[in-house]
Amino acid sequence: MLRFVTIEGGDGSGKSRQLGLLDEYLDSRGVSRLLTREPGDTPLGKQLRKLVLEGRPESLSDETELFLILADRAQHVHEVVRPAIEQGKLVMSDRFVDSTLAYQGYGRGMDLALLRRLNLVATGGTMPELTIILDCPVEVALARAAERQDRQDRQASRENRFEAEGVAFQRRVREGFLELAGAEPSRCVVVQSDGPVMATQEKLRRIIDERLHVGARR
Ligand code: TYD
What is the pTM of this model? Predict the structure, then answer.
C-alpha cells in the first residue's frame, strides 16, 4: 500500500512545480492525500526554516544547521506526516531524509552513517515507500532557481543559503542523490527533469499510478 511518497532533488530541479501538478492529477482521481514539505510545514518549522535558509552561507555551523533541520523533521513527522498516514491519506513530502544525506552528508561532508542514525531519531522510523528523485544538470537547475527569484518579489525569495553555496556544492548534492538512489533501487526512482514540464509530469504520474495500482491489488 502506498502511503508515503517523498520528492527529492537539488535546488531548481522542479520539485515544487511537479508536486503541484501531481496534486491536481491525484485530486482528479479522487485520491485522499496531503501535500507537505521540509523545512517549514509546522508553526515551529516556519521559524526553523527562516533560521536555516536566511543569512550568509557561513552564518551557521554545520552542526547547528543539522540540528535545526532535524528538529523541523521531528516536529513535521509528529504533527503532520504520521497523523495523516493514520487517517489513511497518501502523504507526499517535498524533501525528507534524503535531503539531509545529500546536502549535509555529500554537500557539507558530514558522516553519512551518523546522519542516518540521527534521521532515524527524528523520524522514529517513519519512512517513505517511494522516493522520486528529480535529476537535472546543475547549470540548468541553478538557472531555473535564479529565474524563480527574478519572477517573484526579490525580497521574499532571495537566494537561500544552499543556493548561495555555488556550483561545486550543488554538484556534490546531485551526485549524492544519484548514489543514494543507486543504493536503494526498490525505494528510489530517478526521473530526469531537464525536459518539458509535462513530459516529466507524465513520468511521475505513471510511477505513482503503477504503485497505487499494485497497492490496490494486494
Ligand atoms: P527550499 O526553498 O524549500 O528549496 P527547494 O524549493 O529547492 O526545495 O529550501 C530548502 C533548502 O533546504 C534546500 O536548499 C535544501 C535545504 N535542506 C537541507 O540542506 N537539508 C535537509 O534535510 C532539507 C529538508 C533541506
Answer: 0.94
Q: What is the largest CA-CA distance in the chain?
A: 51
Give residue 115's Cα distance to chain centre: 16
53 lines ligand 1 (CB under 6 A): yes
Tens-place pLDDT, residues 75-132? 999 999 999 999 999 999 999 999 999 999 999 999 999 999 999 999 999 999 999 9
Q: Which atom of ligand 1 is nearest to the CA of 100?
A: 22
Residue nearest to atom 7 of ligand 1 (CA): 11
Q: Is 100 touching ligand 1 by the criterion CB < 6 Å?
A: yes
Residue 205 grid cell: 504520474
Q: How confident is the model over 177-203, as pLDDT tens digits?
A: 999 999 999 999 999 999 999 999 999
Q: How many Å apart are CA 91 and CA 173, to the nearest integer?
A: 25
140 within 8 A of 15, measured Cβ to Cβ: no
